[in-house]
């Protein structure tokens, strides 16, 4: 699913990693490290979490991973970690088994539930949430809004496109979104987006409640080892 430029950046980064390790060839481990750095951001070893923050982060990532594992349309879990990368305090990395050109409504609904898995896990365990779920909520909300406004996946509105995006060439190709709907419809869009989000949250909560013992097992493992690779993650369910 990457562009040629992305692949070039990854192979260049892998070559740098191999050179630092005085290797004459690039090995799979170098490519894996390069993919993580390019796609997720550089590892921030100096960004140390307190014991409590690490515990919260572990539970949040365990929530993402567990919901993603259970729901059938989510991509397979490749790695779960509480090591800071880029701006993230931890990450759950899912990779598709094959290139995908088309996305179904069921796929979007499962992905939104996975995005909300961390938020829901925090709420379930601590009865409150932290700012750590900010990016997850942003991604979930955008996906839900795209379902309603772009892809015609809302039963309420049906197969219509709400809003028109135009490239304003004279303003540096800035994308401008024009409204082709009323204030009343705008309010109804907000209500429909909130309905999709809340339904996904309820699905995520039901999964976490049902598999709470596995949630704890994943979070405990993350607190101990900081990172769980895909094959080891799968073994936690056996």
Task: Explain what this protein looks like in three dimensions.
This protein has 238 residues and is mainly alpha-helical. It contains nine helices and five strands. A three-stranded antiparallel beta sheet has the order 2-1-5. Helix 4 runs antiparallel to helix 6. The two termini are 30 Å apart.
Descriptive tags:
single chain, 238 residues, mainly alpha
Give the strand order, joined by hyphens, for the main sheet. Answer: 2-1-5
Helix fraction?
55-70%
Beta content comes to: 5-15%
Q: In whole angstroms, how far apart are the ends?
A: 30 Å
Biggest sheet layout: 3 strands, antiparallel
* Individual helix count: 9
Order of helices and strands: HHHEEHHHEEHHEH
Shape: globular
Rounded mean pLDDT score: 90
Low-confidence stretches: none
Radius of gyration, in angstroms, nearest whole number = 20 Å
